[in-house]
Write a structure and sequence with these properties.
The chain is α+β, with helices and mostly antiparallel strands. It has one domain (21-115). It contains 3 helices and 7 strands. The protein has helices at residues 2-17, 83-90, 109-112; strands at 28-36, 39-52, 55-64, 71-80, 93-95, 99-102, 105-108. It has a 4-stranded antiparallel sheet, covered by helices on one side. Strands 5-6-7 form a 3-stranded antiparallel sheet. The longest helix is centred in the first third of the chain and has 16 residues, at 2-17. It is globular.
Length: 116
C-alpha cells in the first residue's frame, strides 16, 4: 500500500509540476514588460511558438503582475513555417501606452487592463 501511494503521489506531482511547452525558453519569440495603470512594468507580454504538425503556432499571453501565475491568454497570433519566421513576424512588441502591437495583432490598453 505504501508503494502504491508513493507511485501515485509521484505521478500526480509530475502531472501538476512538469514543465509546460510554452514555459520553455527555447520557444520564446519575445518578452517585454509594459506599464499600466497599476504600475510600471506591471504587464509582461510573452510571445512563444509551439510545434504543430509541420508548422508552428505563434501564441501570446500577458502576465498580470509579477511573482504570480495570473495571465491573460492571447491565443494563436499566427502560423509560421519556422522559429526564425516567428521571430521575424512576431518578435517586435510595440507599446505606446494606448495600444499594444505584435506583428499584425493589436490590443488596446483598456483591454489589457480589463482583468480587474
Amino acid at each position: 500500500m505504501v508503494i502504491v501511494s508513493f507511485v501515485f503521489g509521484l505521478a500526480l506531482g509530475w502531472i501538476i509540476f512538469r514543465p509546460r511547452q510554452n514555459d520553455n525558453i527555447d520557444n520564446l519569440v519575445a518578452m517585454k514588460w509594459i506599464d499600466g495603470k497599476y504600475g510600471k512594468g506591471f504587464y509582461g507580454v510573452q510571445i512563444y511558438y509551439e510545434p504543430e504538425n509541420e508548422k508552428y503556432s505563434v501564441k501570446g499571453r500577458i502576465w498580470i503582475g509579477r511573482a504570480n501565475s495570473y495571465w491573460h491568454d492571447l491565443g494563436i497570433l499566427g502560423t509560421v513555417e519556422s522559429p526564425e519566421e516567428a521571430v521575424q513576424k512576431f518578435g517586435t512588441v510595440m507599446h505606446d501606452g494606448r495600444m499594444l502591437k505584435i506583428g499584425n495583432f493589436s490590443l488596446s490598453q483598456n483591454e489589457i487592463e480589463r482583468h480587474r
